[in-house]
Specification:
mainly alpha
Length: 179
């Protein structure tokens, strides 16, 4: 009988004791984000799925699930989550940015460029999107366009060395050949 009672108690601990709530969804989302920062994707996913149990329409847990998939190296799955997140919240600069990351990982630089530009349309001073836009353009073989975007990245974060280095490379590629 004691064993049966403990099974009953454990089972009851997993029962919902409240109606779905966006407040609980936010709490689970915050917990999922904390697990992501600790680089614990399985724990993050569990918390984020709980957030979606609480609020099926929430965008942020879906975005974070996309980020979890990126960390796991599952870019196609990440893109799916991020696209769904953007259907729920088209104004998310971070979802656009991470969608750009996923599309880059999938070898789709034009689509990555579009996502970075969309993030910048939402938030023009968003340095990560600005930097990655310039970087992708450079890698895609468009150093002139890359230089324009990397100049903006340098202006946004003058102390950051990577955009300066890429800008110098882009300028070197666009400089006229000596006669």
């Amino acid at each position: 009988a004691p064993a049966a009672l403990s099974v009953l108690v454990l089972g009851a601990a997993h029962l919902r004791t409240h109606a779905p709530s966006h407040v609980f969804a936010e709490e689970w989302t915050l917990e999922g984000n904390a697990w992501m920062e600790l680089r614990k994707p399985a724990e993050a996913e569990h918390a984020l799925r709980r957030a979606l149990d609480e609020d099926r329409k929430a965008a942020l847990p879906v975005e974070f699930l996309g980020q979890v998939r990126l960390v796991e190296g599952r870019a196609a799955d990440a893109a799916g989550f991020l696209e769904e997140s953007l259907r729920r919240d088209p104004g998310s600069r971070s979802a656009q940015f991470f969608l750009g990351q996923a599309r880059e990982a999938l070898g789709r630089p034009a689509d990555a460029t579009a996502a970075y530009r969309a993030a910048l349309a939402i938030s023009p001073a968003f340095f990560p999107a600005q930097f990655h836009l310039g970087r992708v353009l450079l890698l895609a073989g468009d150093p002139a366009a890359a230089a324009v975007e990397l100049e903006k990245a340098v202006a946004l974060a003058p102390g950051e060395q990577p955009p300066r280095e890429l800008l110098a490379r882009a300028r070197a590629l666009t400089a006229p050949a000596p006669r």
